[in-house]
Amino acid sequence: MTRLAEFHRRATEELSAEDPDLFLLLEREMSRQRSTLAMVAACSTAPPSVLACAGSALANVTTEGYPGGRFHAGCDVVDAVERLAVTRAREAFGASYANVQPHSGSSANLAVLFSLLRPGDTVLGMDLDAGGHLTHGSPASVVGRYFTAVGYGVGPDGHVNLHEVAELARRHRPKMIICGASSYPRVVDFAGFRRIADEVGCWLMADISHVAGLVVAGEHPSPVPHAHVTTTSTYKQLYGPRGGLILSGPDADRPGPGTNATLAGTLQRAVFPRAQGTPDLAAVAAKARAFAALATPGFRALARRVRLDAAALAVELQDRGQNLITGGTDNHLVMIDVGAKGYTGVVIEQALEECGIIVNKNRIVGDRKSARVTSGIRLGTNTLALRGMEPADMAVCAELYCQAVGAVDQLDDVNYRLDPVTRDEIRVTVNGLCETFPLPGYDY
Ligand code: DSN
Fold first, then answer.
1. 136 within ligand 1 shell (Cβ under 6 A)
2. Which residue has the CA at smallest separation from atom 1 of ligand 1?
3. Ligand 1 centroid to 229 CA: how many Å?
4. Is there an atom of ligand 1 within 6 Å of 42 CB?
5. How far does residue 348's CA lie from ligand 1's centre (Å)?
6. 264 lines ligand 1 (CB under 6 A)
7. pLDDT tens for residues 176-228?
8. In what helix (H) or strand (E) does residue 376 lie, and over which residues does it extend?
9. Which residues contact 159 (CB under 8 A, 6 or more apart)?
C-alpha cells in the first residue's frame, strides 16, 4: 500500500475511533446518497478519486499567488498541481486562459464583476425567477447592491427573447451582460448575446455552472469562443469538488478595462489579490482530477445520457399531465409548475424526500410564493445518468414522481399529509432502483 493509501485508511480509522458521533454522521450521509434518487439539477456525485484529492495533504499548504509567483516557500508540488489543473481546464473547454482558484461559482462571478466593472455600473442579467442566479443581479446579492442591476426575463413561451435583451441593452447601456442560468431548461444562444454586447460595447460574461458538462461534451453550444469571460462551478456537471473556474477564449489577450493589462491579466488579479487570499490547493488538485475525466469517451457518453435522460423525463412527465415550463428541455433540467395544480414547491419537495427522491423547490416566472415556498420544482438528471440510467428508465422516475404528488394532501402552503402506503411503496421501488443502478465508486 502506498503512503497515501495508508494515510486515507488510517485517517478513516482514526475518525471512527476518536469521533464516533461525527463518523456516524458521515456514514449516514454516504448511505443517504447511495439509497436516494438525487434529482437536484445543481448536484452531481464526485468520483472517489476526486474526493481523495480534496481530502489530501495539499489542504495543508498555505500560500498566495500563482505557480512560479507564490508568496511562500514550499510550493513546488502545488505549483505543478495547479499548472496541471489549468492546462486540463484550457484543453477541456478550448480556452486560452483558465483560473482554477475560485472557491465557488459565485466567487468566480464576483471576482469577474468586481474586476471589470466599477461600483454603480449597470449589469444586465437574467431575472432570478426567470432562471438566473443570485450573482446575476439579484437585490439579495451583493451584485444587486453594488451595481445597477437590470433584469431580462423570458417571453410568453418561457424562452429568452434576444430582441428583448437587445432592447434593454440599448436602453440601459450596461457595462456587462450576463448570460447563462440556474433554472432555464433551454439552449442559451451565446453568439447572439455577444452580438448584443458588441453592439452596445460591453463585456459579456457567460455563467455555465449548470451546463458546463454538456458544453465540454458538445451537447450544448460553447460560450468560450463568444463570451469575453466564462465562469462555472466545478461540482455540478463537471462532477468535481466544491469550487469555481474562470475561462476566457479569443478575447483573453485583448486589453482589460485599464490600459496596462490584458483581459487575462485582469482576471488573474481579479481572483488574487482582489477577491481571495490563499487558494484551496487540495480543491485545485481535485479539479485537476475531475478535468482529466472530461477528455474521456466515458464522459462524453455520460453527458449525452444526461441530456437524453432529461428529454425523456420531460416527455414522460408531460404525458402524465405535469405542467412543464417551456413544455420540455434542451439540457439537463426540467422545470415543473406545481402551482398550476394547486401545490407549493416546498410541499412537493418534502413529500418527495419522504419517498427517497431528492429535488428542490424553485421560484418560477410570475411566482407569488416566497423563495422558501415557491410554485415550482426543478429536476435534473446529472446523477441519474451517472448511475447508468438510460432514457428508457425515465418512465419509472416520472411515474414515481407522479405517484408521490398524487399521494399528497396539501393542507396549506407548507403543511401536508402524505399517504403512508404509497410512500412506502415508492420507497421500496426507489431502493430497488438504487441497487440496480448503484453510484459508481460508492457501491460497496
Ligand atoms: N446555484 C445553485 C443552484 O443552482 O441550485 C447551487 O449551486
1. no
2. 182
3. 20
4. yes
5. 19
6. no
7. 999 999 999 999 999 999 999 999 999 999 999 999 999 999 999 999 999 99
8. strand 376-380
9. 186, 326
- Indicate if the pLDDT at residue 1 is higher than 90: no
Position in ligand 1 atom list of the atom nearest CA 233 = 7
Of 218-227, 252-261, 361-370, minimum mean pLDDT range: 252-261
Three cell numbers written together for 394: 425515465
* Per-residue pLDDT at 259 exceeds 90: no
Section 71-75 average pLDDT: 97
**How high is the pLDDT of residue 258?**
79
Is the pTM higher than 0.85?
yes
**Does pLDDT of 331 surpass 90?**
yes
**Distance of alpha carbon 395 from alpha carbon 355, whole angstroms:** 17
User: Could you tell me which of 149, 191, 197 has the C-alpha nearest to residue 177?
Assistant: 197
Pocket test for ligand 1, best of 109, 126, 136, 236 (most atoms within 8 A of CB): 236
Q: What residue owns the CA closest to ligand 1's atom 6?
A: 42
Asked whether residue 45 carries a pLDDT value surpassing 90, the answer given is yes
| Confidence (pLDDT) at 419 | 98
Question: End-to-end alpha-carbon separation of the chain, Å?
Answer: 20
Question: Which pLDDT does position 189 carry in this prediction?
Answer: 98
What is the atom index within ligand 1 of the atom nearest the CA of 182? 4
Rounded CA separation 277/62 (Å): 9
Contact 120, 113 (CB under 8 A): no
DSSP 183: S
Q: Which atom belonging to ligand 1 lies closest to the Cα atom of 360?
A: 5
For residue 290, the SS3 value is helix
- Closest CA to ligand 1's atom 2: 42
How far apart (Å, rounded) are the C-alpha atoms in residues 78 and 70? 10
How far is residue 173 from each of residues 18, 89, 124, 203, 346, measured CA to CA in Å? 59, 33, 9, 11, 38
Helices marked H in 188-245:
190-200, 212-216
Omega cis (within 30) before 273: yes
Q: In what order do the strands lie in the sheet with 244-248?
A: 97-99, 244-248, 229-233, 203-207, 176-179, 122-126, 148-152
> b/e map of 41-71 (b: 16 or more CB within 10 Å)?
bbbbbbbeebbbbbbbebeebebebbbeebe
Amino acid letter, 30:
M
Which amino acid is located at 304 in the chain? R
- The answer to whether the beta carbons of residues 241 and 266 sit under 8 Å apart is no
- For the chain, list the domains and their CATH numbers: 57-294 (3.40.640.10), 297-436 (3.90.1150.10)
Which grid cell sits at 191? Answer: 453568439
